[in-house]
Design goal:
Elements lengths: L2 E5 L2 E4 L12 E6 L2 E6 L5 E5 L2 H13 L1 H12 L12
Antiparallel strand pairs: 1-2, 2-3, 3-4, 4-5
């Protein structure tokens, strides 16, 4: 499960071959013991929870990097290493 970005204490991960459980492109976010799966397309929380402030940052980051995230999703689903994506600044 590669970390594809890190910013403000938030880890953004994408699992290899992870299209079975949630059935749509998503990322996993970890922040101080909290974890959530978040849909790339619409920012919907699929599972778990993260604090509201960190969620807002992640949603802004997703919007900025949506195309890169879609490319990374295709790589990860096929078992290939996703690219790192620039952090939120």
């Amino acid at each position: 499960m590669p970390t594809i970005s890190m910013f403000y204490g938030i880890l953004v991960l994408m699992f290899f071959r992870d299209n079975r459980r949630h059935h749509l492109p998503h990322i996993h976010v970890r922040y101080q013991g909290d974890e959530a799966a978040i849909a790339i397309e619409d920012g919907r929380i699929l599972d778990g929870t993260v604090p509201a402030k960190q969620l807002k940052m992640v949603l802004a980051w997703i919007e900025i990097h949506k195309e890169e995230l879609q490319v990374d999703w295709e790589l990860a689903v096929n078992g290939d290493e996703p690219f790192r994506i620039a952090p939120l600044q």
